[in-house]
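Course assignment 3, question 2. Fill in each field.
Student: A.L.
Task: Predict the tertiary structure for the chain below.
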Amino acid sequence: MNEWKIYTRKGDGGKTSLLGGVMVPKHDDRIEAYGTIDELNSFIALLRDYSPDVWVNDILLVVEDRLFTIESLLAAATVDDMVRLPVIAEADIKLLEQSIDKMNETLPPITSFVLPGGHKLNSYAHVARTVCRRAERCVSRMNVTHEQHLLGLKYLNRLSDFLFVLARRFSFDNGANEIHWKPIV
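Answer field:
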């Protein structure tokens, strides 16, 4: 197995290559999109590192894998380059929905907007949620038409919902009060 070289010097001029070798500027929408998902993945790892809940951590590890899949699909220069890659499936989205439903069963109903904070895991989950929303906007900006990009967009949308509910669960499990928004008038 060939060792990957960490530096190649190919990107020193402000360009990088997509899967398949096509060179694009580093400010290309695809690079922005999968770079933002990479940032999100780091925050998911942070959640996993701090969460003591095995069930949550197992799901977060799957989320990290799925985010890498979306990054790979976005980095593919052509549809032909996508053929060799893993895919996002409706089952991936369903897992998030089922996880949301399971967590919601134990949480009190929402009666107002909830502000981030109250416990570090809650705050980290909200940071991940907002980065996820930014990633979703980046992918949406690409005017996606390929099915895998559309499923990736759907996955990011559902993931941000999952992260919101996860933030609430972290507060609940740690005995932290949710901070309900009450506008200061």
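Instructor remarks: The CA atoms of residues 120 and 170 lie 9 Å apart. The chain has a mean pLDDT of 91.
Grade: pending
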